[in-house]
Inverse folding.
């Protein structure tokens, strides 16, 4: 979390903190005016739901009763990106599983996902990766991750199929059966189907035989005895028009001739599911959209679907989930089952009779493509749909036994949702900015303003033409907002960030010139309306990006009189800045080991002590009296022991009246200062001055720990932390819940 975060082509801003966090604010604005209380918990009166755009494209059960889902989402640069998440038997999200992209691809189109008995996740799909010519190459391949999400180096990564991969299944021994439209894998011949050993190499003993010519294998299901059910497009006789069918192979790949060979369908098979008694449910766009095969492959006429699923000629069953009582949930692109209206999802009993007690939410109509069966009659739907009010976003929702939505499913780390990256208070209202594109279902394109009562301010309307996320905000005294918009032009990688100004109602301020950057670090708004911006810039598309420090005049044009010290303005010598009440700025050097103070012209103030810490500075906050709280990974300052936290006087010298003793065990990541001078600290921390402590700690002005302080209800690590004027504590890019109220993308806490 601590390397320089270069923005070009990357959508999440401020997820990695470097040097001084960009979420350090001037002390006179970001302090509490209230008397500090001891316990902070979620403010249930403020719960807008931030949302994103994306879909779940594949899912699979995991050992121990959990499951895994793989999804795609539209990044703020317009590119489709991927994410994978693991959940436990209690549907809790495994936060430690953070999958690395195989071969560092820019794009992954997921086709199938599976989990081995040892918990390792396997994903197959289309990968787009950098090539040796400076461009990108696309290939169909497969990858595997360790339990923590690191790429498994023992697995034959990067394996290329010469055609599309469409499905995979993992047998009890851990071998992986992969199907699709390919006929070679890493140069080894394999007719639409291949079995890989645990190390990713080809199992040459597996020789699939279909009895007819296979065109594409779309679904694979391994039965308890090791037999392999496959569905796909096949020709019969050879050379005739291919039609979809289901066949069964023995464990060595040979055709199981005891399974009926003559059952072809007049449409596409989208899904297959195995019942406990060995019968197979088949769904797709054929006939009545759903049928059942007996264990020998003949059609089971005891399943009576009547007139079946209808909506239009394109209606189809996309997913089937078989529940423990033999009933099954069916979802797809339909609005009617056997003459009765439904919302794209129904539950049927073993004979095909509609369960009237299950009534799906209308949001699922036409959007569900994956069903994960859970306990107590619950299911998890995955697909491409807009989430319900209060949901984390689109694509993944838990549904109760009666069909109603259960909002408690935590999907914090799925890429389909982006959180809040910055916050300001402007004219009595709260403004959140980030990577989200919806609030309570309303389009917002990365920024939203809220009234004092927590409702969305409908008078703030951002123009529809704006795209990309917003990573930084500043409010002028007249209510206008300066914003750093990431990837405002998705098709132009050389315009990664635009500094622009919005009017108080959210409309574009066309009088503000602004500037485009290839990479953005931070900006600070001066009292006279000028803006100092740091980042990277390129003079033309063929020139490399270079670090820069630029000052804009109040109208957004470049200030040609701005001549900063060359080591600040012309090199990568600092990464963030924070303004003192007198207009001077505290900045961090390129080594991240010391602080310096500059004038508004970015010339060094030599009166400020520039002694070094012995390790990285990760956050710093300027107090109202000019003293500076500093946190990070260091253990000393100017040779004096200061473990992970220190306070400097206004002249940069060590403030010995703040005594942290032996300090924190692990690095400090974030800090916020209250009006009475108490400091709230966040990080891994471990212990403080030899005493075990939580991730959130409050210190008194002399450095002693306030043992009565506690933060409740927050589930995940934040990337920013600040106090609002009314004393509430706001955490960015996290999640909190209390008494059924959920805040996602941020957490606003109040004190008892």
């Amino acid at each position: 979390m601590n390397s320089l975060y270069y923005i070009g082509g990357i959508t999440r801003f401020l997820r990695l903190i470097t040097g001084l966090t960009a979420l350090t604010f001037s002390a006179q604005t970001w302090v509490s005016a209230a008397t500090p209380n001891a316990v902070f918990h979620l403010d249930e009166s403020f719960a807008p739901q931030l949302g994103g755009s994306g879909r779940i494209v594949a899912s699979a059960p995991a050992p121990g009763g959990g499951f895994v889902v793989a999804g795609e989402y539209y990044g703020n640069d317009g590119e489709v990106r991927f994410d994978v998440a693991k959940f436990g038997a209690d549907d809790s999200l495994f936060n430690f599983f953070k999958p690395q992209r195989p071969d560092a691809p820019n794009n992954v189109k997921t086709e199938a996902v599976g989990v081995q008995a040892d918990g390792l996740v396997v994903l197959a799909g289309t990968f787009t990766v950098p090539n040796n010519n400076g461009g990108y190459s696309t290939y169909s391949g497969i990858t595997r991750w360790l339990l923590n999400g690191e790429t498994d180096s023992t697995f034959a990564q990067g394996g290329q199929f010469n055609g599309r991969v469409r499905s995979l299944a993992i047998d009890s021994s851990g071998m992986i059966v992969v199907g699709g439209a390919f006929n070679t894998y890493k140069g080894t011949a394999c007719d639409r189907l291949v079995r890989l050993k645990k190390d990713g190499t080809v199992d040459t003993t597996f020789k699939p035989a279909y009895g007819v010519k296979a065109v594409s294998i779309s679904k694979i299901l391994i039965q308890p005895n090791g037999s392999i059910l496959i569905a796909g497009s096949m020709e019969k006789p050879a050379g005739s028009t291919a039609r979809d069918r289901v066949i069964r192979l023995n464990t060595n790949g040979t055709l199981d001739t005891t399974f009926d060979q003559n059952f072809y369908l007049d449409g596409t098979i989208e899904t297959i599911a195995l019942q406990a008694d060995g019968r197979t449910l088949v769904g797709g766009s054929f006939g009545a959209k759903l049928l059942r095969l007996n264990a020998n492959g003949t059609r089971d006429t005891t399943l009576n679907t009547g007139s079946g699923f209808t909506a239009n000629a394109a209606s189809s069953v996309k997913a089937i989930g078989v529940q423990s009582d033999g009933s099954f949930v069916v979802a797809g692109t339909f609005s009617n089952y056997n003459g009765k209206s439904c919302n794209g999802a129904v539950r049927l009993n073993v004979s095909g009779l509609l369960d009237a007690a299950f009534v799906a939410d209308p949001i699922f109509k036409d959007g569900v493509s994956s069903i994960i069966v859970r306990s107590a009659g619950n299911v998890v739907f995955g697909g491409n749909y807009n989430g319900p009010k209060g949901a984390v976003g689109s694509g993944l929702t838990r549904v109760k036994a009666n069909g109603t939505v259960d909002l408690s499913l935590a999907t914090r780390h799925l890429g389909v949702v982006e959180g809040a990256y910055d916050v300001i208070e402007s004219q009595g209202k709260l403004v959140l900015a980030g990577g989200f594109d919806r609030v309570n279902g309303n389009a917002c394109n990365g920024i939203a303003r809220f009234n004092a009562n927590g409702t969305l301010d409908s008078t703030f309307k951002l123009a529809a033409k704006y795209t990309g996320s917003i990573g930084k905000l500043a409010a002028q005294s007249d209510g206008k907002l300066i914003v750093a918009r990431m990837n405002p032009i998705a098709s132009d990688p050389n315009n990664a960030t635009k500094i622009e100004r919005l009017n108080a109602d959210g409309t574009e301020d066309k009088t503000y010139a602004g500037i485009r950057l290839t990479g953005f670090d931070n900006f600070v708004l001066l009292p006279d309306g000028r803006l100092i911006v740091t980042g990277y810039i390129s003079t033309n598309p063929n020139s490399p990006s270079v670090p820069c420090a630029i000052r804009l005049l109040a109208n957004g044009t470049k200030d040609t009189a701005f001549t900063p010290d060359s080591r600040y303005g012309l090199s990568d010598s600092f990464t963030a800045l924070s303004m003192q009440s007198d207009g001077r700025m505290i900045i961090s050097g390129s080594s991240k080991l010391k602080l310096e103070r500059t004038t508004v012209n970015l010339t060094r103030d030599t009166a400020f002590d520039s002694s070094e810490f012995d390790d990285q500075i990760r956050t710093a906050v300027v107090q109202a009296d000019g003293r500076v709280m500093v946190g990070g990974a260091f253990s000393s300052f100017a040779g004096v022991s200061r473990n992970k936290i220190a306070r400097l006087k206004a002249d940069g010298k060590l403030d010995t009246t703040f005594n942290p003793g032996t300090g924190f065990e692990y690095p400090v990541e974030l800090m916020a200062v209250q009006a009475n001078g108490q400091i709230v600290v966040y990080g891994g921390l471990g212990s403080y001055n030899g005493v075990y402590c939580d991730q959130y700690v409050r210190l008194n002005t002399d450095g002693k720990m306030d043992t009565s302080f506690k933060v409740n209800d927050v589930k995940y690590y934040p990337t920013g932390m600040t106090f609002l004027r009314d004393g509430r504590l706001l955490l960015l890019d996290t999640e909190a819940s209390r008494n059924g109220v959920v805040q996602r993308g941020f957490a606003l806490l109040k004190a008892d």
Observations:
- The first helix runs from residue 566 to 569.
- DSSP finds one helix and 58 strands in the chain.
- Residues 619 and 647 are 12 Å apart (CA to CA).
- Residues 270-414 form a domain with the Neuraminidase fold (CATH 2.120.10.30).
